[in-house]
Design brief:
By secondary structure, the chain is mostly beta strands. 10% of the residues lie in helices and 48% in strands. It folds into 3 domains: 152 residues, no CATH class; 202 residues, no CATH class; 120 residues, Jelly Rolls (Sandwich). The structure holds zinc ion (ZN) (2 copies).
């Protein structure tokens, strides 16, 4: 039906269509906007000049969304107060069409979707409005009045005489994305996903000048209208404001005359730890430092400041490094609207299955700016900041009148940043404990418990083996009686007995018929051959009255490691002079299982992990003592 080649009715140049479904295209030679009318192409307008190109995508770029390959065939460019964005029209292999949006290097893929319900009119759509479509909760995160700036290539509809268009962007608690497009009535709905640059596997990209090496596409030859100092824009096309390093005027980076937006007086000249213009490789990607700002809170009238470094990778987008008292975080904005929830009694936020606990909430004021920003930088601007923590991650929410931005920070040792940007010297040691600083002792405690448990299992196993194989031979047993009133010499020796086998322990047990009385036994195990003896004393006492008992009638003692040989026992019982006589049995066994040593060993084993656990717990206590939610724990 549709022909794939034609000639431009304006200049005669050949027009080759990449997609047979195109309703509109542009001539690459004369830049006429051409619309299909029956079998003919009609010129309806002319493409104007495009601003400084910063999108790495161009017509002809190829990529993949999931396992579906696509090609970029068309483009609509919009501008709004804080910059511009491209809607790239993409055609998939199966002929379906979708949109790849590049808004300040944040990418989404979306598809026109049938309206699940009548959408509210343009003047009623507002931030925070919720919709539930197919069981998924969407929330309006921004409403933007955009200015249509131009088109190129093939589009699925006529689109060339637009002016201002209102868009409502929708986010979910995961990375789903939606847009309500009020360019026509009823509005159009597009649904899709936020995507990472790397996941799109793009080929045939525009060669950006700063792709590699040190030749940034700088725009120079500019002068500050405030003080006349020369200025260079290193992120032209992205930058919305730029700060004059001389006089601290904040200038409109998109205005060729660099109109002064604000002048700010600074009591001191702050020197960023990473100099502006530094280039470095962090987590595998190249970045250039283009902006620096200081933000200050004054909770309880004590000013407290942190620094934010703005990094740009011209393909993958903007990242931030934040620094507070030597603690660094590598931060990326999150294309989602996390659910606010509770974890126990604490407020929390849930993002893609992970729950982050509220750690801090404060009002932050921008107090110092340097370099370039893809937004209107303004000293004195205030925003609410909430920090939620989970492990080494910090999920932050920044709330201004215009928007709510979520970002995710990953705790990064200063040394890693010093290495990435090849900074001289060493990163200053951090002071205090930071919200998402990894607890240094938790891993240690965990591994200590693991080791202790392994050793303990081994000890128990050895104890069982000992118990099973202990021979427990009785080498002597004899009953005696003792009467303290006899007044005679109580001391005697037993007949000799043989302790056989290998050196082993020897247990001497005493069983008495004592009742409400005590007895003391002086004992000595003596080697008949050498005369060498093991001396020891045992007290046995047993009292009972009205069901309560104290002590016991029996006792035993273990002599460790006795050499084999012939032995006898010297016994000398003692009792109170007026006590009743007692009958007692002495039994001697060799090689008996003994749990005492094993228990002692197990106890010693458990000391290090218990100590490490205590240290980890006290680190957590100190972490939360710095939170302004510590009282609510
Ligand atoms: Zn032409
Ligand atoms: Zn100046």
């Amino acid at each position: 039906m549709s022909q794939l080649a034609a000639n431009c009715p304006n200049c005669g140049a050949p027009i080759a269509f990449r997609w047979s479904g195109a309703v509109q295209t542009t001539c690459e030679y004369c830049r006429a906007i051409l619309v299909r009318r029956d079998v003919n192409l009609e010129k309806v307008g002319q493409v104007g000049d495009f601003p400084h190109e910063v999108s790495p995508i161009q017509i002809g770029t190829e990529g993949a969304y999931g396992n579906k390959a696509f090609q970029v065939v068309g483009r609509i460019l919009y501008e709004y107060e804080d910059g511009g964005w491209n809607e790239w029209h993409v055609i998939f292999q199966d002929g379906t069409s979708g949109w790849l949006s590049d808004a300040q290097l944040e990418y989404t893929i979306s598809f026109q979707s049938p309206l699940p319900e009548a959408l509210p009119p343009e003047n009623e759509i507002a931030r925070a409005r919720r919709f539930v479509w197919n069981g998924i909760a969407y929330q309006v995160t921004s409403v933007t009045r955009a200015h249509y700036r131009g088109v190129a290539g093939e589009l699925p509809f006529e689109y060339w005489d637009k002016r201002d268009v209102v868009f409502a962007d929708l986010r979910t608690a995961d990375a789903r994305f939606g847009t309500i497009d009020y360019s026509q009535e009823p509005p159009l709905l597009f649904l899709g996903m936020a995507v990472e640059f790397d996941d799109l596997h793009l080929k045939n990209l525009r060669q950006l000048e700063a792709a590699a090496g040190s030749s940034a596409p700088k725009v120079s030859g500019l002068n500050c209208p405030g003080c006349g100092a020369p200025l260079t824009l290193s992120a032209a096309g992205h930058s919305v404001s730029v700060v004059c390093p001389q006089c601290h005027s904040i200038l409109d980076a998109r205005d060729p005359n660099l109109q002064v937006l604000q002048k700010f007086e600074s009591k001191q000249l702050l020197q960023p730890a990473i100099p502006l213009g530094s280039r470095g490789k962090l987590r595998g990607d190249d970045y250039e430092l283009i902006g620096f700002q200081v933000r200050t809170t004054d909770a309880e009238d004590i000013p407290d400041s942190w620094a934010e470094y703005l990094l740009l990778n011209r393909y993958k987008g903007f990242r931030y490094l934040t620094e507070y008292n030597g603690h660094w975080n590598f931060v990326k904005t999150v294309p989602a609207n996390p659910d606010r929830t509770k974890l126990g009694k604490k407020s929390a936020a849930k993002l893609v299955g992970r729950t982050y606990v509220l750690y801090d909430s404060e009002l932050a004021t921008t107090t110092y700016v340097l370099g370039e920003f893809p937004w209107r930088a303004h000293v004195g601007d205030k925003s609410g900041v909430e920090d939620y923590i989970a492990g080494s991650q910090m999920l932050s929410c920044e709330i201004t009148e215009a928007e709510t931005i979520w970002s995710l920070g990953d705790y990064t040792p200063g040394a890693e940043i010093w290495k990435a940007f090849q900074l001289p010297g060493h990163a200053p040691a951090p002071s205090g404990i930071f919200g998402n600083q990894p607890a240094p002792f938790v891993g240690e405690a965990r591994s200590m418990w693991r080791t202790a448990m392994n050793l303990l299992s081994a000890i128990i196993l050895i104890a069982i083996v000992f118990y099973v194989f202990a021979s427990q031979q009785t080498v002597f047993q004899q009953q005696y009686s003792y009467s303290p009133r006899a007044g005679a010499e109580a001391s005697f020796v037993t007949p000799p007995f043989e302790v056989k086998g290998h050196p082993s322990n020897v247990e001497i047990s005493i069983r008495t018929d004592l009742r409400n009385n005590w007895a003391y036994f002086n004992l000595a195990l003596i080697n008949e051959a050498t005369g060498q003896g093991y001396d020891f004393g045992r007290e046995v006492s047993y009292y009972t009255s009205g069901g309560e008992t104290e002590g016991g009638r029996n006792d035993r003692a273990i002599v460790p490691s006795v050499e084999p040989g012939n032995y006898y026992l010297r016994v000398e019982p003692e009792m109170a002079a007026n006590a009743q006589s007692m009958v007692y049995t002495l039994e001697i066994k060799r090689s008996v299982p003994s749990s005492g040593l094993f228990l002692l060993g197990a106890g010693i084993l458990l000391i290090p992990p218990i100590f490490a656990t205590w240290r980890a717990a006290s680190f957590e206590q100190r972490r939360w003592s710095q939170s302004n939610f510590s009282g609510r724990a």
